[in-house]
Amino acid sequence: MEGDMTTQPSVVVAENAEFARVAAEEILQEIETAVELKGRCSIALTGGSTPEPVYRELARPAMAERLPWGRLDVYFSDERCVPPDHPDSNYRMAWESLLHGSPLEPEQIHRMKGERLDHDAAAAEYESILPPRMDVLLLGMGVEGHTASMFPGSPALDERTRLVVAARSPEPPEWRITFTPPAIEKAGTVMVLVAGCRKAPAVARAIRGSYDPISVPVQLALRGVWLLDRDAASEIEDVVPMLRRERRQMQMGMMNEE
């Protein structure tokens, strides 16, 4: 493995059938921790197919009853430039799987306005309403290693100042609004959700390979917690115990320093 301990993730691997429940529990615990420390929690949701069953799990009564809904502020880490009722909308997916029927007030939900024709203005407007840092940032990963809507080689990966930008995608829809590297860097807890054997090579490349986020954008989240199902973790099984052990040792070291 290349890189030092500070660039290696904490990895949680769940059996495929348990992935949604395990991931939801991990997310819930991070929310509870943030609320305990700060009184509120800002969380940025991610889109795609992987988080949908996780959101549905969070919406189940057993977990929904534990969620501190009144102390949440919900944001999004990226959005497709489509209307909010479009089938490709990340907001629509999150609304249908988690937010609809929740006790959240409208002012607690902050969606990216992907329907705006001026994508740059939409990105700037969204950045203006973000908190100084996101307490919990959820991200996904594509088969080629993209995260949020930063694909390999995207100019957004070179951004060093703005937290949100408009970016082109090699997949339809062409335009997206996305968090940038500084937004990921500023976040409190970053959680990467990955499921499926098709993504196993990219997981291995991100964790085992040289650090090159221009080619493997999800490496921007290497300091985070990676929630993987067994299939997604199939090419890093030999290093999972070491990653977990390093995380615990790092936490113990920080406690001793305090």
Can you walk through the features of this model?
Helix content is 34%, strand content 17%. The protein is an alpha/beta fold and 258 residues long. The chain has one domain: Rossmann fold (3-Layer(aba) Sandwich). The chain has a six-stranded parallel sheet.
Keywords:
34% helix, globular, disordered C terminus, alpha/beta, Rossmann fold, 6-stranded parallel beta sheet, 17% strand
Tell me the layout of helices and strands.
Elements: E1 10-14, H1 19-38, E2 41-45, H2 51-59, H3 61-64, E3 72-76, E4 78-80, H4 90-99, H5 119-129, E5 136-139, E6 164-168, E7 175-179, H6 181-186, E8 189-194, H7 200-208, E9 225-229, H8 240-257
Helix pairs in contact: 1-2, 2-4
